[in-house]
Write a structure and sequence with these properties.
three-stranded mixed β-sheet; six-stranded parallel β-sheet; homodimer; 2 domains; 9 strands; about 300 residues; Rossmann fold; elongated; N-(1-d-carboxylethyl)-l-norvaline Dehydrogenase, domain 2
């Protein structure tokens, strides 16, 4: 496996991931729409490319981690995109969270050029990215996955090949459905407890070790009580991911009543300018309906 | 603390809990509406009482664990009930899951007789009851709780005093809101994954260690995939508990939109005769809407 990696997308996730590749001894060629970020990484040992096409011409492995489906399509398939420069036998690893079906379409376009694609979305947030502790769910050819494993291991910890092309994205979307399920339970339980006059810290410690326990309860529950809504993971990004879920569900003619409702709750958060709050700000929607604030001592 | 305990309610939970008291060296006087169960326990060393009143006359500590709010009111407050026999200075520990407000009312009636009450609902199911591994959430006077701790420790493991009278029930209801939140996420994620053609075992193993992880996902997820709906915890009981949640919420004028919706999904399960299935049978409601069955290999 080549030690030369093209890296496209130096955002809140991509930048620390690219740094971890440098640390692990990979040669990194970076492209970012806002050039200043690529220049910053260049000062840490990367080389800056002027277009995805130019980057792809010299890199047998190209990683993309950008915002949404149209952004991945743009950097890979459009004019001056990866597909115009990349050589047969290369691999594109898309680590963005995007549509499973669009992923399959992009993979098909690349395959025509003799290029393999893995979809490898991540979970674990900016902290996971910085610490190289991301969970990575990978779809695509198993042999290609095994070849690319050392690269993924430089950025993450729990790295699982979950199936064919698109399945990494499908499992990532399952992850988001699971996450908001836990979250809606936590916020409805906390509002219920608050209104009942319960000691919410005690309540969490009494139940978190049992059947009601979850990562969300243990980690976000105490922060909600302290009204700490610093991200973490933006409301805007959560709603983007839930839109992907609902889009994929609609393509399959699958109703998801509760996820759809939670998506609307996130939309209401965005409408009230909470898009940059942590996804746990979901509690605010319920508080507005209920006329009670979690963690306010006067009602305790 | 007296070693003599009155025990009312020898159901799927109460019977093994009473046995654990016997094992721990307590003297148990048992009453059950269906007398044969008290006779069975009598053969294991308990003494059978003919009414809650008779039982209460000789026991300074009385435990009740029956189905629902009216049942607790009946055994404690009605003719031949505990309140007619119990002596001042005694303690009633109600381990049923019932209304927090009714709990406070019953505690007030007992207080007039000089009798203390703890609400101490449990979680952990029949297996937890058998293994003396129940979680016990306790409301009531802290000093009474400390006096009764050795009794509770004979039946459970994670025993937390969460506040004043009624707060044990409030925290138990929070527990149930949390549980069904996790559960709705799991069933919507599994149906989404199934319809997408994902390998659901792999998907669970890829995500369960991260932010989407929960007890429900790790423990009930694999059983749902195998279509194992043996209880565990009945749909009927879950709906009873969610009715308590919605009743308590209505008393406080608190909307809980998602818990309410899930309660209706459980109601639909009951209407189709799934009341004795495990609470994870919630997936069936979604499957009926979606026209897909989780764990069916033909769609994988």
């Amino acid at each position: 496996m080549s030690k030369k990696i093209g890296f496209i997308g130096l955002g809140i996730m991509g930048m620390p991931m690219a740094r971890n590749l440098l640390k692990a001894g990979f040669e990194v060629v970076a492209y970012n729409r806002t050039a200043s970020k690529a220049e910053a990484l260049a000062r840490e040992g990367a080389r800056k490319a002027d277009s995805p096409k130019e980057l792809a011409e010299e890199c047998p492995v190209v990683i993309t981690i950008v915002s949404d489906t149209p952004d991945v399509e743009a950097v890979i398939l459009s004019k001056d995109g990866v597909i115009e420069g990349i050589k047969p036998g290369s691999v594109v690893i898309d680590m963005s969270t995007i549509s499973p079906r669009a992923t399959q379409d992009i993979a098909a376009c690349l395959k025509e050029k003799g290029v393999a694609m893995l979809d490898a979305p991540v979970s674990g947030g900016d902290v996971g990215a910085i610490k190289a502790m991301l969970s990575i769910m990978v779809g695509g050819d198993a042999e290609v996955f095994e070849r690319c494993r050392p690269i993924l291991e430089a950025m993450g910890k729990n790295i699982v090949h979950v199936g064919a092309s698109g399945m990494g994205q499908t499992v990532k979307l399952m992850n988001q459905i699971l996450l908001v399920g836990c979250l809606i339970g936590v916020v409805e339980a906390l509002v219920f407890g608050q209104k009942s006059g319960a000691d919410l810290e005690k309540a969490i410690s009494a139940v978190k070790g049992g059947a009601a326990g979850s990562w969300v309860l243990s980690n976000l529950g105490p922060r909600i009580i302290k009204r700490d809504f610093k991200p973490g993971f933006f409301t805007d990004l959560m709603q983007k991911d839930l839109n992907l879920v609902m889009g994929a569900a609609a393509e399959m003619k699958l109703p998801l009543p509760v996820t759809s409702f939670i998506n609307q709750m996130y939309y209401s958060l965005q409408c009230s300018d909470d898009g940059k709050s942590a996804c746990s700000a979901l509690v605010k929607v319920l508080e507005r309906i209920a006329g009670v604030e979690v963690g306010q001592p006067e009602t305790r």
